[in-house]
Design goal:
The protein has 242 residues and is mostly beta strands. The chain contains no helices and 20 strands. The protein has strands spanning 26-32, 37-42, 46-51, 57-63, 68-73, 79-84, 88-93, 98-104, 112-114, 120-125, 128-133, 144-146, 152-157, 163-168, 172-177, 192-195, 201-206, 213-218, 222-227, 230-236. Strands 1-2-3-4 form a four-stranded antiparallel sheet, with no helix packed on it. β6 and β7 (88-93) form a beta hairpin. The radius of gyration is 20 Å and the shape is globular.
Length: 242
């Protein structure tokens, strides 16, 4: 705190001597490219919005009653979704605060991802994946995706939002179509599947403009290229990627 002793009437200025980082482990992070903002959440029970300047500045810090495990930034930058111990909260982002406007009864959600258009979002609920319509909060039975045998730890939407990719601690990577043709017996969930026994996947991504090629990383410090459910190439990364 800086105080002008010669002019005590002047407004005092507060400056951080220690940068306002989280006090405990960060569990979730997401970026809004449109607004150059970054959202983080932690088991210190805070959710923070940062302006990605140089150096980064803290815009919002909200303290909650429960630990936060995951966060997703809406592409517009006006909303976030946060997974807490007891529920998932949908919140509006104001200039200096976050305000909850809807909750979803999913406990301990570890992964949330908005679609590229922002009209949908996917939540990992243990081994299941629930897809919601953002503007109505609707989640119908045909938008619940079940195939994983263990916790889902990573989600990634395809470029056109027609489907998404999931990876889990059960060693499975699945490529899902959002909707299937019920009259076509070959059009089933998931569209493609890849598995490694006794393995854990922590990150997945699609190749741009491709609906079958997936990049996946896990506990062996490599990046795997998977095409239509088959391993085609492995890169040595040297570090674990998540």
């Amino acid at each position: 705190m800086n105080v002008n002793l010669e002019r005590p009437s002047d407004e005092s200025k507060y400056e951080y001597l220690i940068y306002p980082f989280h006090s405990r482990a960060i569990q979730g992070l997401d970026i809004c490219i449109k607004k150059n903002h970054v959202a983080t959440c932690s088991i210190d029970k805070t959710v923070r919005i940062w302006n990605n300047t140089s150096p980064p500045t803290l815009e919002i810090c909200e303290l909650f009653n429960d630990e936060a495990y995951s966060v997703a930034f809406h592409p517009s930058g006006f909303h976030i979704i946060v997974g807490f111990t007891d529920r998932v909260r949908m919140m509006n982002v104001f200039q200096k605060s976050l305000k909850s406007f809807h909750t979803i009864a999913i406990k301990g959600c570890r992964e949330i991802r908005f679609s590229n258009g922002g009209h949908l979002f996917a939540c990992a609920s243990q081994s299941n994946i629930n897809v919601y319509k953002f503007y109505t909060g609707e989640n119908t039975q045909d938008m619940i995706y079940k195939a994983h045998l263990g916790p889902v730890r990573c989600l990634h939407w395809q470029d056109d939002d027609s489907g998404f990719i999931s990876g889990g601690w059960d060693g499975n990577v699945f490529v899902w179509k959002l909707y299937t043709d019920k009259n076509d017996p070959k059009d089933v969930h998931p569209k493609h599947a890849f598995m490694i026994k006794n393995f854990q996947f922590a990150s997945v991504a699609n190749k741009p403009d491709s609906k079958s090629i997936v990049y996946a990383a896990g506990i062996d410090k490599t990046i795997k290229t998977i095409d239509a459910g088959k391993l085609v190439l492995t890169y040595e990364a040297g570090v674990n990627i998540s």
